Amino acid sequence: MTHSSFDSSSFIQVLAMAPTGDPSSPGGGLMGFLPMILIFVAFWFLLIAPQRKKQKQHDKMIQALEKGAKVKTVGGVFGTVTGVKDDRFVVRIAENVKVEVSREAISAKLD
Question: Which CATH architecture has domain 66-111?
Fold first, then answer.
């Protein structure tokens, strides 16, 4: 039987003796999280912050809607606000055709 130059037990012993990172080394733990922190900051400025700004503008537009305003719904229906209720608008979409839509269903004011 030939003896192999690679012995698995000696390999495991070598791995066990390998130096490990010193947990008290300066910046060791924080430097590992730095890329994740940078990705989160980039994610915030590229996606979350603009969406929050857009949502605030939409909420302001909804609060300012009054009777007579021309609007577009999220379904693409155009109409004129004929009534304002607590949680919805009454929108005239054609002659003698009125529908009630939730405040969230208004996507834009056309005036």
Answer: Roll (2.30)
Task: Give the tens place of pLDDT for each residue, 30-74.
Answer: 778 888 899 999 988 898 989 999 999 999 999 999 999 999 999
pTM for the structure as a whole: 0.60
| Residue 68 near residue 80 (C-beta atoms within 8 A) | yes
C-beta of residue 91 within 8 angstroms of C-beta of residue 71: yes
Cα 47 from chain centroid (whole Å): 6
Q: At 94, phi and psi to the nearest 5?
A: -160, 170
Query: Distance between terminal CA atoms of the chain?
Result: 92
Q: What count of other Cβ atoms lies within 10 Å of the Cβ of residue 73? A: 19
Q: What is the DSSP letter of 96?
A: T
